[in-house]
Amino acid sequence: MLLLAPVLASCAPVPATKETGMPTPDFVRGGVRVTEHHGGDDLLSAGLGLAGLAGPPAPFAHPLSPTAEELRRRAIQTSWQGIADLGPLGGFGHVYGAVPNVPGREYQAFAWLPGAHAPHRVLLQVPDAFDKSRRCLVVTASSGSRGIYGAIALAGAWGLPRGCAVAYTDKGAGSGYFDLAEDSGVTLDGTRARRGRAMLEFEPSADTPRQGIAVKHAHSGDNPEADWGRHVLQAAQFGLAMLNQSFPDQAPFTAENTRIIATGLSNGGGAVLQAAGLDEDRLLSGVVALEPNVRVPEQGRALFDYATEASIWLPCALMDTRFDKTPMARTAKGEAPPAWVERCHRLHQHGLVSGSRVSAQSAQAYQHLRGAGWTDEALEAAASSTALDLWRAITAAYASAYMRRGPADMPCGFHYAAIGKGGAPGAADPAMRAAWWSDASGIPPGNGVGLFGGADHSADPTLPGALCLRSLWDDTDPSTQALRDGIDATTVKAPRASLPLWVVHGASDGLLPTAFSSEPYVQWLRSKGGHPLYWKVPYAQHFDAFLALPGFGDRHVPLLPYGYAALDRLWAHLYEGAPWPALVPTPAPTPRGEGALTPATLALPPTWTSGPG
Q: Which Gene3D superfamilies match (predicted)?
């Protein structure tokens, strides 16, 4: 290891097998990048600490050419801010959670599934204080379509201070956007390079028209959601192999001598449940899934189904007076968004609602959604996703992924391009482009990249695209069969009945409502003889980060602390002999109101260290 020190300190790629004699997995291409992180640059916050994570964007000395170290620091900060409520009233760091300094080492690589067109990133963080006496590997997948650090606020924050190594995958998504005009993408260290000059996170075929932006999740041609579980299992295998590299005197690290705990949130939660169902080699010791995007056979509803429904109906339904006090359902002046008023009129024109007044039309739209399984809690929280135009962003990207389309032939005429003068497609801003890997969410619009097409010039311009995307689901025409086949390929399989498994979901989730996802999954497992634990947490919704918004956090509680608590209980079972319970009562939190979050507000169970609380 002394031979490695000068190279590690410089953060250069390292062919680790030469120094340790330990093999690198054959699914890794292009080598493994190994970096040391000490002093002012740790694993959990890149040296920013809690205050820095919550602060303004970490600076780049030269915005047009940020260094790999600067990009990593900002990618970690962006991932924290996208998942956790770090606001002054949110309680992170003193009511629950912490961001201690965790020095250690990172191993990062591009990993390939058989037959894949594009790789997924894998990353292992190994703390210097890795507990060799209680070998622990946490494996996780990014939430949403985020980059490689997209689960650090859950898996990293819980596992690294405990002495666990943490293995991440971006599950075939991520923010390695490809600028077709410049013919450039993102390298392993986050910096940009032109095609042919380095191995890139994603590059479309060379004959793709040289205009617009290509995004891996939408345009790789791999339908990555169908392989989320394989991505997670491959990340676990990568983690074990890199632990062999890191501690050759302790090797081999295997599932027989190392506990592997899988956890994830949102799409990451769905990914670890997919992995549990594919885990024929019994790699996983336990699973905790938060608000998972999961679909079971012949039960629940597919995300694309209820998201396209929401995209069409929610703007009008939210015009109902029952939502007058709902955060983000009205403008700052207390008025209805004009496009939502127009949506009611246009639904009437399409014969989808009757009545000549918006009040009657909105009431019918509301009843339509209630009849489709939406609860009032989910509809209220969904006002945020509707106001932020998330339904259109999600469904346009996912349709392209399911149908395996490229950047030039996305369904319904959609395409991505840099936002130029006057909001029209144009050339990418060089500074924004340099920061895409660290700052972007993996699904445009955002960060100077727009979603174009599928619109008209009316007062409600997004309805044509929404109706077109919905038709892909409803139609039985052979031309749309690829979408339904792509969605069918994402259906989860049941894990072994003996696997400790806990699903934690917010009762007020308006993006992935429990009635369409977690509840059908839990019921399905129980019908097959499984014994999953399930917390449907009152007043928790999908986006903890939204709790810092004025008026939003007053009504809700964060979900992360309940995920940490479930992981604590799993740890007690795996390492301290605590029995795995048949049932754990769901906590009964209360909304925090206008004040700061308190322990009493969360109503968390006692700390589990030697058995049930």
A: alpha/beta hydrolase
